[in-house]
Backbone:
């Protein structure tokens, strides 16, 4: 028998877990996004808290860092979600992802989503890193591993 998910729990417990997970990942930035929806689409704000953070991000099985790297890769690949990408790059740093890991994940998206998406992702990462005073170390392959 499968264990019950948070989604099958009472809505209040999903909300509490969602609020806690949102704060852990995004700090105050996620709350600002949610609050900005209250006047026009409070339902969307509720879905973000209850489902995205109360159900999906809070699941066991992989670390929050892994979840944030997956989110950064997806938002980079979309190519049209710069504000959300910046929030999740911040979130990745908040939950312990290393700047170089974020850069490598974005770089990999050039293969699957194209160079423009990866370039836009790197630009978003640069903005977040500069804002936070983070300096990723430049990574390069040794000469004997570089394509010729």
Residues:
């Amino acid at each position: 028998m499968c264990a019950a998910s948070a989604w099958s729990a009472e809505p209040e417990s999903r909300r509490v877990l969602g609020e806690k997970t949102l704060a852990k990942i995004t700090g105050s930035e996620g709350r600002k996004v949610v609050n900005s929806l209250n006047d026009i689409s409070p339902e969307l704000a509720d879905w973000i808290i209850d489902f995205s953070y109360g159900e999906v991000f809070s699941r066991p099985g992989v670390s929050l860092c892994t979840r944030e790297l997956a989110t950064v890769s997806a938002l980079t690949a979309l190519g049209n979600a710069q504000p959300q990408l910046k929030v999740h790059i911040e979130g990745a740093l908040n939950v312990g992802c290393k700047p170089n890991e974020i850069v490598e994940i974005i770089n990999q998206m050039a293969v699957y989503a194209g160079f423009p998406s990866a370039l836009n992702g790197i630009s978003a990462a640069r903005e977040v890193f500069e804002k936070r005073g983070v300096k990723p170390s430049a990574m390069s392959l040794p000469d004997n591993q570089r394509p010729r």
The helical segments are 11-26, 28-37, 42-56, 64-78, 82-94, 99-113, 115-132. Residues 115-132 form the longest helix (18 residues).
